[in-house]
Amino acid sequence: MDPPGINTPILGNPITIFIFGLAIILFSGLTGFILFKKLSDNSSGLIISDEGVVDNSSGISAGFVPWTDIIAIKETRVFNQRMINLVVKKSTRLDFKTKKFY
């Protein structure tokens, strides 16, 4: 018994199916690598010191943020999850650190 075919020219194209499959494999591999890297990391997620804040909480962490760059600290709730937001000045140093992942 043969499975039913796809009759649309775009989704039925073997090249399109190959490209979508390859994109899904690459995305899943990258996500798995970042997840494994964070799970095996023993460093603290957030370090607050006299000099500033060190963020190691996610795969695209900001790293060290000095107090001079922080304008305000706010608490936000998303689906009953409390989060800390650090409002920072426009800093090209932070933009450079986070842009390498997207």
Distinct helical segment count: 2
What number of structural domains do the residues give?
Answer: 2
What's the arrangement of strands in the largest beta sheet? 1-2-3
By oligomeric state, this entry counts as single chain
Overall pLDDT level: 80
Tell me what the structure shows.
By secondary structure, the chain is an alpha+beta fold. It folds into two domains: 1-42; 46-99, no CATH class. Helix content is 33%, strand content 27%. It has two helices and five strands, in the order αβββββα. It has helices at residues 14-39, 92-99; strands spanning 46-48, 52-55, 63-66, 70-78, 81-88. Strands 1-2-3 form a three-stranded antiparallel beta sheet, with no helix packed on it. A two-stranded antiparallel ribbon has the order 4-5. The longest helix has 26 residues, at 14-39. The chain is elongated. The termini are far apart.
Summarize the SSE layout with pairings.
Layout: H1 14-39, E1 46-48, E2 52-55, E3 63-66, E4 70-78, E5 81-88, H2 92-99
Antiparallel strand pairs: 1-2, 2-3, 4-5
Descriptive labels:
three-stranded antiparallel β-sheet; 5 strands; 2 domains; 102 residues; 2 helices; elongated; alpha+beta
